[in-house]
Amino acid sequence: MTIANKIDQILIKVEKPARYIGGELNSVIKTPGKDEGQFETRFVFAFPDLYEIGMSYLGLQIIYNLLNQEQGIFCERLFAPAQDMEALMREHQIPLFTLETKTAVTQADILGFTLQYELSFTNIVNMLDLSGIPIKSQDRGETDPFVAAGGPCAFNPEPLAPIIDFFMIGDGEELLLEVCRIHLEWKRSGEKRLSFLQTISQIKGVYVPQFYEIKYHEDGSIRDVLKTFDKAPDRIQKRIVSDLETAVFPEFNIVPFIDVVHNRATVEIFRGCIRGCRFCQAGMIYRPVRERSKNKIKELAQSQLKNTGYDELSILSLSTSDYSEIEPLVSELMGVCHTNDVSLSLPSLRLDSFSVKVLEDIQGYKKTGLTFAPEAGTQRLRNVINKSITDENIYYAVEQAISLGWQQIKLYFMVGLPTETDDDLDGIVEIARKITDLFYKSKGNRGKFNITVSISNFVPKAHTPFQWFPQCEISEFKRKHYYLKDKLKMMKNITFNYHGTDASYLEALFARGDRKVCDTLIKAWEIGCKFDGWREHLKYEKWLEAIALTGLSADAYIYGNRNYDTILPWDIIDSGVSKEFLIRESKRSIAELQTPNCNAECQDCGILAMHNCHVKQVKLNEQI
Amino acid sequence: MSRYSIKFKKEGYLKYTSHLDIMRFFQRTFKRADIKLLYSQGFNPHPKMSIAQPLSLGYTSTGDYIEIETESEMNPDNIYEVLNKLMPLGIEIICVKAINQGKKTLAALVEFGEYEIKLGDEYKNLGPLIEPFMKQDKIQVKKLQRKTGIESILDIKPLIHDLTSEDFEGHIKLTMVIRNGSQANLNPELLLQALLDYSNCKKNYSGIEVNRKELYYTQDGKLIKFEDYNC
């Protein structure tokens, strides 16, 4: 019986069976062969979480489009099955299969996982097991697929190094194509598995962990990295797509039948960020800033809307307001949306008088909430983290918003930031209190008003100025949460949310871990951990058991102080941002000094050694 | 502005999509086809588009209907052609007809649905039992109220218009015309269960194939196919 026949017997028994059927609008099917439109290399793009999450990720659409346009290559999709589906698949001995052609994943040539968040790592192990592919790289044979990975978490690849055959670091558009083309040639040549890995290790951006052996000091820290293949690069430079204008971008997005997290047309307006918030990994690893032109954005938006029938358009970037022509862009997109009878969504907008007015135009009487992310409660702490928003910015925008009729304000903060004291927590309460006062001053006692204060826990991430700082201890996180809860519960109209500390602890372990944490990961999966990013599925006790069983000193990774000379597990990856810059920024944070953004003044972050910087170029031109 | 009735098939893997999924799918399809639907008035405008009778998840259909109102008058043949070009594998447009403004909505019109159920040859003995089964004064089934958890006894005989069987490529095919719609509704699997109980067949019938073939309304006591809806 084929997989397709077998799943037909179980799909009716599972929740949301359409997660597993494929066949959506704009999905692609190819047949094996050497003719036009056929394929020889099967790349399976794997998102290690549910369909609804993975299908909302724009990167999937980019890669799917890109690879399926290429002669000889077929990209299929794979997601983590939900637990009900997994149980039935195991019961009926159905291996993990691709959405497009219901082909067993073992038939893939390359199985590529995207690493969007650390707490999806157990799902990767589980998906390999469900596929029947050996979990560790060293156990795979000549006929097994290559297991690859990319995405932001690949910037600290070490916790997955024993599992992944090769990582792809940085922008995937060009790199993935190069790797797949080499695979096509390699497959025709009939050479051994090792020769493929050796060949691609010569491509910029490819990291083959088995070509490096890590030597440790007695205390467990890294002493040295030895190469086992002498042609492998000393450090792996990330890949950068130079020109977004000509880069492949989806115009035929796959449109899911079921409701997914983001059901909308999406155009990326720029990559990178000028801000340099010191906690933010994305702000460091996606440098330099590269913009797409206003006309190209409009063209892509129109094309996507036409090909998908979506009734919502969204634009994507790390900080929408920093787009150089944001005002004309927004007004022109509003025109596009009006003509097509679709709504516009503008995430990551810095709230100032322009954006409040735009949001008023877009939302009309259907006002949802307004969101601010001050991240820290006092100016002092915002200086430490280099977040440039001020109290005045917040209150000014809030006053305008209230007068225009908004009744719901959301505030995002982090706790456990370096140098944080209770005064900074009091600052959070103060901001919430002042906003409430502003509302009553303007509206009297009329109308419902609500402020949501959401707290996340600071996790020190690789390649940021905070990479040397320890994470706040769990007990201290909890104290801070209760401290805020006690103060905020005295106030009316406040909803208070905070993240689980257990999840943050594990996130830090994998954000900062080296190769030794991989055994703990596999052990945790063996004793039942998966879907750790889902609060209802996270089994923290099991994780502690796995840590104990594998004898890992997890606390040392999470709370250990690392000095600037320590060899960090992710030093093998060159993000383009220099260590000197990160050290400088780290020191400035302790001195509570803000650093101007790239538009104001080049901070010499090091990226220029790897790639030209558009922002820097504009500055230079202005001076001339 | 104009009203149209669109008959379509939903088969293959698409049987795993829900009623809401199909609604969303058609809404997007009309946008892609640049067929401008009328919108309801009020604070939360909705496109004027409705499916005559929702189909259970897991069933295929070779006769489903969706009704739309468009901003301007269109040729039904054009709608048919434009839509069919945009259909994914599993959905097919069968025909498009204009309907008069004054008429009832399709959803209000539905009274009966015709279902086909394919069963394996282990159910072969069911055929001869159908006549005595249908001749009973009452056909009683136990029905569990989902909300209250109370089991009630229900006589479904008045909800059945017709039940027949035929041998079909080594299978047995039951065809039933039963009440559907907002006034009275019978789940085809409830009827199947009643028949299996009657035949003392304790088989677990999961994995059966159910297809809805057509919807009916009545006029002067006669059943009329939706496809023949007189405009």
Compute the separation of the termini of chain A in Å: 72 Å
- Could you tell me the CATH topology label of the domain at 3-237 in chain A: Rossmann fold
- Summarize the main sheet of chain B: 9 strands, mixed
Q: Total number of helical segments of chain B?
A: 5
What name goes with the CATH superfamily of the domain at 3-237 in chain A? Answer: Cobalamin-binding domain
- CATH hierarchy, class of the domain at 3-237 in chain A: Alpha Beta
| Principal-axis shape of chain B | elongated
- Which term fits the overall shape of chain A? globular
Mean pLDDT across all amino acids of chain A: 94
Strand coverage percent of chain B = 35-45%
Query: Whole-Å distance between the termini of chain B?
Result: 16 Å
Radius of gyration of chain B, in angstroms, nearest whole number: 19 Å
Feature tags:
heterodimer, A: 624 residues, alpha/beta, Rossmann fold, 6-stranded mixed sheet, 4-stranded parallel sheet, 21 helices, 19 strands, 14% strand, globular, B: 231 residues, alpha+beta, Alpha-Beta Plaits, 2 domains, 9-stranded mixed sheet, two-stranded antiparallel ribbon, 21% helix, 36% strand
Q: What does the model show?
A:
The complex is a heterodimer of chains A (624) and B (231). Chain A contains 21 helices and 19 strands. With 624 residues, chain A is α/β, with parallel strands linked by helices. Chain A has a domain at 3-237: Rossmann fold (3-Layer(aba) Sandwich), CATH 3.40.50. Chain A has a six-stranded mixed sheet with strand order 2-1-3-4-5-6. A four-stranded parallel sheet of chain A has the order 15-16-17-18, with helices on one face. Chain B is of the alpha+beta class. Chain B folds into two domains: 2-108, Alpha-Beta Plaits (2-Layer Sandwich), CATH 3.30.70.580; 112-228. Helix content of chain B is 21%, strand content 36%. Chain B has five helices and eleven strands, in the order βαββαβαβαββββαββ. In chain B, strands 1, 2, 3, 4, 5, 8, 9, 10 and 11 form a nine-stranded mixed sheet that branches. Chain B has a two-stranded antiparallel sheet with strand order 6-7. Chain B is elongated, with a radius of gyration of 19 Å. The mean pLDDT of chain B is 90. The chains are: A alpha/beta (624), B alpha+beta (231). The A-B interface holds A 9, 11-13, 17-18, 20-25, 255, 257-259, 305-311, 340-341, 365 and B 12-14, 16-18, 20-22, 24-25, 27-32, 43, 57-58, 88-90, 206-207.
